[in-house]
Amino acid sequence: FNLKHYHGLIIIKHTEDVFSVYGNNKEILVAEKEHVVAGQEIARLSDAPDDTKLYFEVRQGGRPLKALNYLPKLKISHR
Question: Count of alpha carbons within 13 Å of 43, Cβ hemisphere only?
Fold first, then answer.
């Protein structure tokens, strides 16, 4: 996949063929090959309203998966 368009790119290897990709980060808080754990802050995004937002992708065997399946479900309350 083409990575040159994403600023501050982080790729996390979960298994031999599953990776998560985080792009358009303002500040990277982890080092290359550093072990990370779920919930750990790995980067900071810009808070400027006109900046590009986080790019998130999950890949298995080089193919993108439905990333929403890997994010926590949001609970929305209606008033």
Answer: 22
Domains of the chain: 10-69 (2.70.70.10)
Return the closest-CA partner of residue 29 out of 8, 51, 59. 8
What is the Cα–Cα distance from 53 to 61, expressed in whole angstroms? Answer: 26
**Alpha carbons within 13 A on the beta-carbon side of 31:** 1
Q: What is the pTM of this model?
A: 0.79
Estimate to the nearest angstrom the gap between the alpha carbon of 40 and the chain centroid.
12
Tell me how far apart the alpha carbons of residues 22 and 38 are, in angstroms, rounded to a whole number.
14
The number of residues making up the chain comes to 79
> Per residue in 10-29, pLDDT tens?
999 999 999 999 998 999 99
